[in-house]
Fold this sequence. Notes:
The protein is 24% helix and 19% strand. The chain is an alpha+beta fold. Helix 2 (76-84) packs across helix 3.
Amino acid sequence: MSNTAIPPPPAPPNVFRCANKSTTRQGTPLLEGCLWSIDHPELQKACFLARICALKKPKSCAFNNIDSILQVGPTCGLTAVSMLFGGRLLPPCVVLKEAKERNYTYNGEMFSARDLYQLICDYMPLINNNNNNNNNNESNGDQQLLQQCANGIEMNGCGKERKPQQTPIECQIHEGRLNCAKVREALQQGACVFVPYDPDYNHSPCLKSGHKAHWALVIGYLIKENDEFFVIARHGKAKNLAVWSLQSLSDSNANLIEFAQPKGYPDCDFLLPPGGIGGNLGLRERAIIVKGLPFKVTTIS
């Protein structure tokens, strides 16, 4: 019998690693699919997990460079507003404070698209002030606190070298089905869209009659070779980008008909608009489109 030592078995392969880059030190891809987006690791991961354009690049794809912010408590809509304004410029705690003072919410919940729309509109001057020092517009609310937050801080994605905003910022409530020419065209022109929907266990859109109602911020789009339209989104429950079918998001948005007490907050009271979330002041078939934002845009074509 030989006394030669038997070498240990090789270490198991690393199937998936979370990294800032899409390649290993040897230059091989960490993910085997969606190699057309290898220069954009977060997008590649989102498409890979959603099994979208695994082998062929999309016909068109673009998204605004907006960072994620994780929500604290039931503040998904208010956190999405903070994402749009760059986080440091308008922290979620400031938006929550303002929403409570306006009696829009008790705990951070936003079950009225109209109220969230009003908040966004009233904060729009912050963007103009940040891009044009001569703009004297002021938003409603606690101006001293907002100025402290905005002092010397740039909007996320806006470099100092960027020229002042040329296109006027436009904010509007969309009523009706989300999968329509109006919304698709707005996204292709660089708009962001706030959308309430029912999230499944993996946060993708599903149909639960509004019992899981949650806000997402759509920041871009992807069009497959067969012209199927997808949206690129962020929301307060995950750091990663999400890629969803616009049709599935539209169906989920249209099924928001009734409120259900969240399991995580059994003893909390929640503020509902007249008519509930399925009424005219609620969430069903409602979205908020914001056009003319001064973000850097990543385009893949």
